[in-house]
């Protein structure tokens, strides 16, 4: 089975850039410790300090689905609407 790659893009609401960064940063350690997490990196744009990307690789979709049900992710989901004006999710696999 192919490794699942996730690229998540989150844009902070104006005035909530630091709050969103703090909440996103809190996801790093617990997610990296999860079964199936190969890579979980957060990036902030140089041009727009309120724009964040996650680059993730998971052993399988099933293990990523488990990740999406963890307390740290569901807890963030409850706050996301207050902090982020938009978010997008790419799900794919490496082909070359």
UniProtKB/TrEMBL annotation:
What the entry lists under SUPFAM superfamilies is as follows:
Dimeric alpha+beta barrel
Q: What organism is this sequence from?
A: Aureimonas ureilytica
Which Pfam family name is an example for this entry? Answer: ABM
Q: Which domain of life is it from?
A: Bacteria
Boundaries of each ABM domain copy?
4-94
Can you provide one Gene Ontology molecular function annotated for this UniProt record? catalytic activity
From the Swiss-Prot or TrEMBL record, give the protein name.
ABM domain-containing protein
